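Quick question: what would this complex look like in 3D?
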Amino acid sequence: MKKYILNTFIVAALLSAATSCGDNFGTMNISPNSPSNPNTASILTGALRNVGAAVTGIQPGLYVQHFGDVTYIEESRYKTVNFDYNGFYAGPLMNLQFIIQQNTDAATKSNAAATGSNANQIATARILKAYFFQFLTDRWGDIAYSEALKAAGDFNPKFDKQQDIYTDLFKEWKEAAAQFDGGKTVQGDILLGGNIARWKKFANSLRAIAALRLSKVDPAKGKAEFAAAVADGLLASNADNVKYGYLSEANNEHPLYNNYITTNRKDFAVASTFVDYLNKVSDPRLSAIADKNINGAYRGVPYGVFPPTWKAQDVSLAAATMRQQNSPVNVLTYAQVLFAQAEAAQLGWISGNAKTLYEAAIKASMEQWGVYTADGFDKYIAQPDVAFTSAKAIEQIATQRWIALFYQNSEAWAEWRRTGFPVLKPAEKPLNGGTEIPRRMAYPTTAPTLNKTNYDAIVTSQGADDQYTRVWWDKK
Amino acid sequence: MKRRFTLPAAVIMLLCSISLFAQDRTITGKVIADDGSILPGVSITVRGTTRGATTDSEGSYKIAVPSGSQLVFSFIGFTNQEVTVGTQNVIDVRLMPDATQLQEVVVTALGISRDKKALNYSVQEIKGDKITAARDPNVANALAGKIAGVQVLGQSAAKFGTPNIRIRGVNSLTGGDPLYVVDGTPTDISQVNMDDVESLSVLKGPSATALYGNRASGGVVVITTKKAKSGEAKLDINHSTTLDMIGLLPKFQNEYGGGYSQDWETFSFNPAIHPADWKAFEGQKLLDYSADESWGPKIDGSPHRSAFSWQQGPEFGQLTPYSAQPNNVRDFFNKPISNNTNIAFSKGGENFQSRVSYTHIITNGIIPNSKQAKDFISAKNSITLLKNLTANLNINYTSTKGTNVPADGYGNQTIGSFNQWFQRQLKIEDLKNYKNPDGTFRSWNIGGPLDSRPKYWDSPYTQMYENTNSRSDTRLFGDFGLTYQFTKYLKGMVVARRDQQQYKSDAIIAYGTLNAGGLGAYSNYLQNQRENNYEGLLSFDKTFGELSVVANAGGNIRYNLVETFGQATSGGLTSPGFYNIAASKDRPAISNNRFERRVNSLYGNVSLGYKDIVFLEASLRNDWSSTLPVANNSYLYPSLSGGVILTELLPRNPILSYAKVRAGYAQVGTDVGPYQIFQTYTTGNAFGSNATQYLPTLLPNADLKPGLSSSYEAGIDMKFMNNRFGVEFTWYQNDNKNQIIPLPVDPTSGYRNAIINAGLIQTKGLELHIFANPVKSERGFNWDFDINLDRNRSKVIKLADGLTNYQLGGPTWRTLTVNAREGEDWGLLVGKKIRTLDGKRVVDANGFYIVDDQKSLGSVLPTFKGGFLNSFTYRNLSLRVNTDFIVGGRFFSTTRMFNAYAGLAAETAGLNELGNPKRDPVSAGGGVLLDAVTEDGKPNTTRVETQELYEDKFFALNDQWTYDQTYIKLREVALGYNLPKSLLSRVKVKSANISFIVRNPLLIYSAVGGGLDISESETFWTEGGQLPPVRSFGLNLRLSL
């Protein structure tokens, strides 16, 4: 009897173990570690955190010889050929695309509107998305655009022609600026605080500068787009400048503060090319841009010379005043807008006096760097190098813009490539297999390894995937 | 011959014959084992008759025999012994263990012991003694080379790491750890106490692991721990003391010191910035202290100012000779003493067996101030009640405490600096004085005379004594189970198992040191996890005439929970020296996570044996997994195998003693980790008061199906010359279908990875195990060896629509990636390659190699690998010598690249082919001439500057630093001596053994060279700043009381 009970017990235990199999496990597979519902304001903040990185990525600043390497004389000699844009696609671009979608889809739009009207969020996201795409196409040329950001819908996006991308960017900025409504202010906007007027000026100014990119390749379209952008209203003073503000916290600190102070690496100093030119024209901005070396002199780091015979203490680092932990960086400035208009006026694209605009641009730049004095300015613009000469106007505008764009690395490189001014001497012994200053960044290795068919096609049509194939608007 | 005396045959004989014979004489006696333990169940037969007896639980027997007959004593695992009956009435016998026969019974899935010849798949088992000869505390290290098809992913003992293993190479795209099962309870490899291991079986393919299902796709290591035997009372003590030392370092140059230029810098006094009394320093020789490379001035013994002569203390202002320090790196490392002690009590009676064991291991690191203490406590108990009901309780407790455990990795502050970024002339004594009296830190790598803040490196001693870390891992695992023997043939078992862990770690970056902006940091991490398994099993085992049947059916519920909690200060500490999250300057980073999953399973298997000639086995398992979409969360998979013992069909012959052919087919289903089905959003670092959120970069998949791998396996096992020589050969193929992988996709799609069911990944392999006993002399000399060889090839047959490349790793150093590509061998390295012309490297007009990017640099998969194990015994002496090796397969070394880049490597100095110093300018006859041809095929005649070659051109030139993995490593040597019984019996010691052991004695050959032991590499394809191997010399004493 005892044995029987025991047997029954054991068989029952086995059976109960067996019968509990195959249930649907309830909610066990729902993650408690990350939210299932998005907050588009936080997603916008996350996307905007990439604006600083887009502006300050150092290589273009080395190409235009604003900066030079201090110890590892590599990037100033073009060591890196392939650059990675993946962080922008699987990052801010995808997140901005998501904001647009959340505010568009019927199922999600009313929830999304809790952090800003649907129209305002979409407009903001479109302007930014176009901003990032312009940043990418200016660097890499033809890129994934129309088929990008479709997730499982297309794991092999084709590369679009830069010309087509530019055409769409103009449309995007134009439509987006017109899309803002009087609804709820967008939350999470750490760039412009949800200020619609400023977003519109930003979008129009981006259009104007993008239009000027076409000065050589398609002046007719450039002219039309430029005039339209001016008519819609550009930045009108330094108060309108779009700046990305870093914070006094480790996660959001200024990149040069990080390089100079936090890590004590001091990898980059102001280049000799830049310091020497500013010294030559006694530019008051030098003191706002560069520090003195250990011996109390402004000495730019010799550009692209290997091996180095100096240490960080011997050369001028970027000025402490511009690289505090919470210093802002300039995304788009009034000076840029004035330089663009000066050039447009010189090209005959708009009415207006090129000289006046040029001088106003220099003044705005000095004010922006905090070194403007009326006397100093008058003297500065009177000297032979700077004094406006119509015959040399394009070079003068470009050279002054080159100064004004210090630490707006990508933009400075784009403008240098477009205009060819100032004339820069390439680094000695480049490491990228070429002899000239790079005019493009090569695609990341993911392009040939993960999207080979489209990659091969674009290399055939655009040209070799190196640093010397010119992007569409970069016409000789 | 041996077959005749295996246990079942003997028992059957015995049962039939016991009462049939007239009693001539009665012999009694006792049978004990070599180590003095009592042997119950030994069969005693009278040669030439069918008469027999067995020993009882006290090891005693009684048998009636005619005079002059011969008694044969046989017991599984021991050599048979024959005794001629003379006039004596008492015959006591001591049986010696039989190494060959020890391998006959193996533990298989679910802990079921099976006669190996009944198995139709490859299983290799090794007994404790063979694994632990060198007392390596890590299972994986101890397994190296010992089992065909097992690859050890080693770790330097300098970081006390737990190595892992891969069974049958890369079975899947992402590789996979095997499942470790200790007495039926799945646990972690680090929890295995080698002193408790009785035997270890490696179940390699799905045929063997089918019953484990889900998690067994990487193979299973089944570990059986020691238990008390009936009638035994034993105290075992095992102690070893080892002296550790650094095993290997790169060959450094000692001709040039720190700096980027050979020209001396001299001090130039500037009253505006220098204190007035520094005027006396005018003209003194300076080095570039900010350089962490050694392209500096030629070491000439001249007086110079060291970095320390600019820092506080008595060295300030002193000139010291600029002299070579060839042993500076070696001198950094300690030669510590470590101890490993185990004590185990076991006692067994008729109805209970109990064993308790305690192990204490103190390992002091070769890197100063690092150590690990590990304690294992285990208890294994079994009580039989009511004759048929047995209760088992096994409890294992492990505590591991690590102090300042160093890490591998490119930027690590010890070897990462010494081998990659250092100044060769530094005296290690100077670095030891790492802290000033005022609490600030000293470094060799400072900005300059006026800037003593560390530039790229603190003193390595700062790292080890100030940037401290601690970790503690407490683990408890075991099971409670009941077994009921319903009938002689049927038994039922229910078991509850748990494995739970609490892991805690914290780390300090000292205020004022290099990292965290000099503002200090503190972080801690806590992880709790547990796994519960509830299982029930019915087992049937009966022989019907010539047909033997073994069948099992059961079910299992597995539940896993992982909870993590991590915090770190951000932006520095508000209060120097106060290492607490509360001291965080910015909002601290805090995260907590919880992962939960459950798998329910039902399974069963049947094994049939006909006449000990033909064996068939089939199994079926169904899993239900919580991590898969509801529609696809149930999956069923079968296995089927068969084998024939050919020798049973052949006439007896003296050459071929045993031969079996076997073949099998099996499937294993796999699921995925938790939370990979539904879209969620990631919370990022806040921007001030603004929270951030991101889409994850891994695209979840709501339509996931379970992965299914099908495997085919066939093999032949043969033994020759009375089992003295043997060979086991296995061929297998795994077809991994629908394997669930985070496939990298072009990120322009908006995602970096997508969870998908991949198409088909195929693995094929060959395994060969040869064992032999070539010398067995009458005078007691014996030589056994094992050779294990295997070859494994994985290929991507089909990935997914439109996708042909799975990037497994990289890019690193600009463009180097490792890939699994459709149609190519797994693990293809792709990167910058030096152009060749008819096998010769090609240079450009400047004498540098011409380089093409995105070229294949070969697969990381070795051509073959294996081990060679030797065991020599002579009377009481034994010697074990174990070697393992890898041939072929490519590997990229970051250490070698920077060892040369930074001018530390011997190859960067010395003389060139003209007899001039390489580092002299080319214009002065220096420089290097690369062995190459120009583009038109003519020999290269253009010498290039040495520094430019290594710093500029060879940096990130992947091809230059990619090597064959080929190595031969003498892994362990153990020389043992068994103290004679005559001596021991007087002091009541059953057995005693003293051994001299050496671990890691010699890397006999390595193609990578450069002082690296890539058998201890961090990853399968690359390393950077890898910690050095540790060589250990030790004495081990084993006592049985």
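Answer marked as accepted. Chain A touches chain B through 97 residues (CB under 8 Å).
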